[in-house]
């Protein structure tokens, strides 16, 4: 588990802002070109970050104890936070609204209004998850990833370059973090150097809720967590929604550690 993943997302938020600023400087105003250019730039550069992090912080510890990569991940997380704070400043930063307008429809005596930005985010998230699912389930790289995850030693004996596969996994993970960074930055409009910590914990909560290792489970967990947080904020107090998320994580780990779609691990003798 890469506990520095949230801070890779944070870096991608800064990269998204830089990409938007550069494209706007050169006169690009059309939303499709703005978002496409920003996505390509952010995904490529964040992928490089993911590759470097894997090579520097994880590969040297491949055969060490399980605690060593965890400590290394915490160190990388702190390095990325301080790097962003020093290079970009401690103040909260933001981006302008890229997609104006909303879709509104009547429901009984009231109405429901969804901004075009949120509709785009929902579609992009489904497309991103669909692409990732296709890669993992139906491509040669995906089969190598699954084989390495199940038994790295046996995969290596069968001729799979497991070091390269793990590097690819970090690059793909960073690319997905970049997609999330662009979309969430579009939604909230603001971010800072500390944004990755909370997002990382919530992503971990969603993965645990759905079932570690299950892509549909991660998506289901994220959806359930988001809806639960919204309901909690409306009914109780939005100031405590993070406490609610962390409490939910503790309850899941106690009562159903395999998650909703995960399966209990069976030790084979």
UniProtKB/TrEMBL annotation:
GO molecular function, one term: L-isoleucine transmembrane transporter activity
Membrane-spanning parts: 7-27, 33-53, 65-84, 119-136, 165-188, 194-227
Membrane-related topology note: Multi-pass membrane protein
InterPro entries for the chain: ABC_transp_permease, BCAA_transport_permease
Cell membrane is among the record's keywords: yes
Localization (cell): Cell inner membrane
Keywords assigned by UniProt, alphabetized: Amino-acid transport, Cell inner membrane, Cell membrane, Membrane, Transmembrane, Transmembrane helix, Transport
GO CC entries: plasma membrane
Gene Ontology terms describing biological process: D-alanine transmembrane transport; L-alanine transport; L-isoleucine import across plasma membrane
The keyword Transport is assigned to this record: yes
Family: Belongs to the binding-protein-dependent transport system permease family. LivHM subfamily.
Protein name: Inner-membrane translocator
